[in-house]
Write a structure and sequence with these properties.
The complex is a heterodimer of chains A (about 290) and B (about 650).
Chain A: E1 16-21, E2 27-35, E3 40-48, E4 54-56, E5 63-69, E6 75-80, E7 88-92, E8 100-101, E9 112-116, E10 120-124, E11 169-174, E12 191-196, E13 202-207, E14 214-219, E15 224-229, E16 235-238, E17 250-253, H1 271-274, E18 277-278
Parallel strand pairs in A: 11-17, 14-18
Antiparallel strand pairs in A: 1-2, 2-3, 3-4, 5-6, 6-7, 7-8, 9-10, 11-14, 12-13, 12-15, 15-16
Chain B: H1 2-34, H2 43-47, H3 52-59, E1 67-72, E2 78-83, E3 88-93, E4 98-104, E5 109-114, E6 120-125, E7 130-135, E8 140-146, E9 151-156, E10 162-167, E11 172-177, E12 182-188, E13 191-198, E14 204-211, E15 222-229, E16 234-242, E17 250-252, E18 258-266, E19 271-272, E20 281-289, E21 295-299, E22 310-315, E23 321-326, E24 331-336, H4 337-345, H5 349-355, H6 362-365, E25 366-371, E26 376-381, E27 387-392, E28 397-402, E29 408-413, H7 422-430, H8 443-446, E30 456-459, E31 469-470, H9 492-495, H10 498-505, H11 512-524, H12 541-551, H13 567-570, E32 581-582, E33 596-597, H14 619-624, H15 640-650
Parallel strand pairs in B: 19-30
Antiparallel strand pairs in B: 1-2, 2-3, 3-4, 5-6, 6-7, 7-8, 9-10, 10-11, 11-12, 13-14, 14-15, 15-16, 17-18, 18-20, 20-21, 22-23, 23-24, 24-25, 26-27, 27-28, 28-29, 30-31, 32-33
Classes of the chains: A mainly beta (about 290), B alpha+beta (about 650).
Chain lengths: ~290, ~650
């Protein structure tokens, strides 16, 4: 950064692109790899700590590219996948926890984005189209192709980490699986099935508490898909993309495809009264019918 | 010889360098810890008893004023600010933008109101338990009216014959007859009545309450805004905000149809898993329809940015704009009232129910965020509506904002920036939400007025749903290590250090110098005056009987009480804790341990609920409900009168 001689910081046996520098000196980047299935390019996120240790922080099977380091210390990631051919923006912490859809101040869909001024994200849409309405802090009728830094950015904070690499599991707490903005009747949901996305095997099925909550102990660093089942074991709704937890991460969500603009309601989830149901021990179950 | 001379010279230079180095180091050390230029301090000044922190408090001279609430004279020419740490009301000439007078009032002034002729101000003295009547022409206090415990907000009746006072500690709203100086009536408030506002026609008084009712164990926080008929002194309605508390500021719009209050929505019933998307706290306003009493909660937060600790709310005289100060993130939110009214009109009942959870609504009615200096609190709009003045409490300044351009115009410094002590720096950290992820909350958010929010929290590292603990007041904790209910933190440094950031704030922890400042502030917190202690130190007959029970060694039938089960064994004065852990049979199945830190009992009158998980709503319940086997002292032989006496004595601690 001081314009002295460039030096190699790590050797990786694949193309590494879109680096981002975190305030604690960690470099995050995407490692590209072409996979035979569908001849697709996937990008996996890695973090190279200042001390030299390299760790994988994403566990999906999509093309994930680092876009920016957000003013709150998270990483903004642009994802392209068969499910999202136009791409979506995600945010996650530098330790790979808390992956979620990145939301700007208004619903902007997928945008190229740049941190400006006070460190907030300015969208750069092709025009003022419906997919990229102007957030309130921009002048109406804005038209931007690409945004640039117009003022020094405040240094983002350093994220603390809950990850304990020596553990091989984490937890999922859903406050109300029936809470959704999907056009689906989740009132019939009776239990939740956890599926290993890579192998297609069901790891376990656990009932949902009366208030819709469930609390699961799940294997860490694996792409998982959740399915809601009715009382006959039939699928009510199936998660199309995946989710992972890092070792020792407690992952919380309000519902299944609930509005991402909602903060959670303040109530004690019933599922916590019984403690976490482990799906790890059930991992030898057979593949789910109709799934890879 | 030459070699010897060189050796001497070398040693001399080295010695001189050492002296210079030590001198500079000690200068910086003293400068850092006292905030002052070293003049009279020696090592001995601070370290005579090996406890630098304690003596430091003697060395530090508090010089801050800490302006809290503001008023402008009816002619718009003078501004008055209560100086919380200066025990004064500061007068500012707005044309000259200078401080013209400092009028000494009672201890820790909080709110003030000015009569219509601009000649008299009434000032509530939070720690003086009194109202100062100030002659603004003469610039002095002409009369002091005693009132309840920790008077907070004030409002004058329309005929200016009655002063309404929020009695914070007594949970009362007092109506004081100003001609006699006597409390005419005590009205039951909610939890810690706070700010007051009167409708333009003078008929209705609204009082916010800072704290939730002490509810059933692990019940949701419920906090009321109390309606009082100002002509008959009768409470007429209690508007309850579910899952909200810290209702601080209130303003009634000039149209007289709506009131706005500030509020915080804690998520204490959820485990503290993460901070994203308001999982720990969110911040907003309540809109009350004064006719129907219908209340709607709206967040001022955004999806990626939070606005911690909303405090004051005021509107322009034409009702076009409202302003909310966010004391945790040093911002003012500007609300377009027409947009807010439009939004509310478009909501059905279900939408109103959900509005308090939505992070995408504020962009529809908040038209600007205006940055301020540290800890913006009280605000006032000039009578002509052209200027908004903001008390920047921890910057000792007043910010003037143009209400047309919504741009800051100028800042009035209330005193020179002579020095900033560690305690002051620590106070800033304590009150700053900027040290939590996306500005969601500050230390103050859970410890309002450095005390407790009366809520229980479920922290993730213990396992979700396990080890739920009651929040604890910070008053009097200085020498009561270890900390935490499990007694694992041996010092305040540990309590507020790395683990704190990993569990709560989720961003980088305080640097060691910051941590030192924060601890310095927490250690310096003085106790408020205890209303249960008589000024002469004598105990009432009931308290005296309670003292005997507290110190007793035998039951009423003469049985010896084991030493380990006597009150005074675990709670010996002066701190009323032996600083050990004990199993008093209070553990529940979701607790991971049975032994808990023996809490100090100083200020216990103000720290309900009780026991490690807050399941005892009152001091009485500790023994009437949760001591069936005499595992928490021997109390089964006590009569109701005995227990009342014991409780009366405990409240004097």
């Amino acid at each position: 950064m001081d314009a002295s001689t460039p030096r190699r910081v790590i050797a990786v046996d694949a193309d590494c692109v879109t680096p981002g520098l975190l305030p604690d000196g960690t470099i995050v980047f995407s490692r590209l790899e072409r996979v035979p299935e569908g001849d697709r390019l996937i990008g996996t996120l890695y973090a190279l700590r200042a001390g030299g240790s390299l760790s994988r922080i994403s566990f999906g099977s999509d093309l994930d590219l680092v876009q920016k380091i957000l003013s709150d210390g998270r990483i903004l990631v642009h994802r392209r996948s068969p499910l999202y051919p136009d791409g979506i923006d995600l945010a996650l912490r530098p330790d790979g926890t808390e992956l979620e859809r990145f939301l700007a101040d208004t619903s902007m869909g997928s945008v190229e984005a740049s941190a400006v001024g006070d460190g907030r994200i300015q969208p750069a849409g092709p025009d003022g189209s419906e997919r990229a309405p102007a957030p309130s802090w921009l002048e109406p009728g804005y038209h931007v192709i690409d945004s640039i830094h117009v003022a020094p950015r405040p240094l983002p904070p350093v994220s603390t980490s809950v990850v304990k690499p020596q553990m091989d599991y984490g937890w999922l707490l859903c406050l109300d699986a029936r809470l959704t903005d999907l056009n689906a009747d989740l009132g019939r949901a009776h239990s939740v099935r956890v599926v290993d996305s890579k192998s297609g095997k069901a790891l376990g099925v656990e009932p949902i508490a009366r208030d819709g909550s469930f609390y699961l102990k799940v294997p860490a660093d694996r792409l998982l898909r959740l399915e809601l089942l009715d009382d006959q074991g039939r699928t009510v709704v199936r998660q199309r993309d995946g989710i992972w937890v890092r070792p020792n991460e407690h992952r919380g969500c309000e519902g299944c495809h609930e509005s991402r603009y909602l903060s959670p309601e303040n109530r004690s989830p019933l599922a916590l009264e019984q403690g976490p149901e482990s799906v790890i021990e059930q991992a030898s179950a057979a593949p789910v019918e109709g799934r890879p | 010889m030459t070699g010897r001379v060189r050796a001497f010279a070398g040693a001399g230079v080295a010695g001189l360098a050492c002296l210079v180095f030590l001198g500079l180091a000690s200068y910086r050390h003293v400068r850092y810890y006292t905030g002052d230029t070293p003049r009279t301090y020696s090592c001995y000044s601070c370290h005579v008893d090996g406890n630098g922190g304690r003596l430091l408090e003697g060395v530090e001279r508090p010089t801050s004023l800490s302006p809290l609430m503001l008023e402008v004279s009816p002619d718009g020419r003078r501004l008055y600010a209560t100086a919380q740490d200066g025990d004064a009301v500061i007068e500012v000439d707005l044309a000259a933008r200078t401080v013209t007078r400092s009028i000494t009032v009672g201890h820790r002034p909080r709110d003030l109101v000015i009569t219509g002729d601009g000649r008299t101000a009434y000032v509530s003295n939070e720690w003086g338990n009194s109202i100062s009547v100030v002659d603004l022409d003469a610039g002095r206090v002409t009369r002091t009216i005693p009132c309840g415990n920790m008077p907070s907000g004030l409002s004058l009746s329309r005929d200016e014959r009655t002063l309404f006072v929020g009695d914070w500690q007594g949970d009362l709203i007092q109506a004081i007859d100003l001609s006699s100086g006597r409390v005419r009536v005590d009205l039951a408030g909610g939890g810690s009545p706070n700010e007051l506002a009167l409708t333009p026609d003078g008929s209705l008084l609204l009082t916010t309450n800072e704290l939730s009712y002490v509810s059933s164990h692990r019940g949701p926080p419920r906090t009321e805004v109390t309606f009082v008929d100002a002509t008959t002194d009768r409470p007429t309605r209690r508007v309850v905000f579910n899952n909200a508390h810290l209702i601080e500021g209130v303003t009634i719009l000039p149209e007289g149809d709506l009131a706005l209050v500030t509020l915080v929505k804690p998520k204490n019933l959820l485990p503290v898993l993460h901070v994203e998307r308001g999982w720990t706290m969110s911040n907003g306003i309540g809109v009350i329809d004064l006719k129907s009493g219908r209340a709607t909660q709206l967040l001022l937060d955004e999806v990626n940015r939070f606005f911690a600790d909303p405090f004051g709310v005021v509107s322009t005289p034409d009702g076009r704009l409202a302003f909310v100060s966010h004391s945790g993130v040093d911002q003012i939110s500007v609300i377009d009232m027409a947009a807010l009214r439009r939004l509310l009109r478009g909501m059905d009942d279900q939408a109103r129910q959900q509005a308090g959870l939505r992070l995408d609504l504020s962009t529809q009615f908040v038209i600007k965020r205006i940055p301020t200096a540290a800890n913006p609190k009280g605000m006032v709009v000039a009578p002509d509506g052209k200027r908004l003045y903001v008390a920047e409490r921890l910057n000792d300044s007043i910010l003037a904002i143009d209400t047309a351009s919504l741009e800051p115009l100028y800042r009035i410094e209330l005193q020179g920036k002579e020095r900033e002590t560690p305690r002051r720096r620590g106070e800033k950290l304590f009150n700053s939400g900027l040290r939590s992820f996306q500005g969601q909350f500050s230390c103050q958010s859970c410890h309002p007025r450095n005390q407790t929010d009366r809520l229980q929290y479920d922290f993730e590292p213990d396992g979700l749903g396990l080890g739920v603990v009651d929040n604890r007041s910070l008053l009097g904790i200085r020498d009561t290590a270890p900390y935490k209910w499990n007694g694992k933190n041996t010092s305040l440094f540990m309590q507020c250090g790395i683990r704190f950031s990993r569990i709560l704030t989720r961003v980088d922890s305080f640097r060691s110098d910051e941590l030192s400042d924060l601890v310095s502030f927490i250690r310096s917190l003085p106790d408020p005056p205890n209303p249960y202690r008589s000024p002469d130190g004598k105990l009432t007959p009931s308290q005296a009987r309670g003292k005997l029970l507290y110190e007793r060694t035998r039951t009423k039938d003469g049985q010896l009480i084991p030493e380990s089960n006597r009150c005074i064994t675990c709670h010996p004065p002066p701190l009323y804790t032996n600083r050990k852990r004990a199993d008093v049979g209070s553990a529940s199945p979701t607790d991971l341990v049975k032994e808990f830190d023996v809490p100090h009992l100083t200020n216990i009158y103000a720290t309900a609920p009780y026991l490690h998980d807050g399941k005892a709503r009152t001091l009485e319940e500790i023994w009437t409900l949760y001591n069936a086997k005499d595992t928490h002292g021997v109390t089964r032989d006590m009569t109701n009168q005995d227990l009342n006496d014991l409780v009366e004595y405990l409240k004097t601690f």
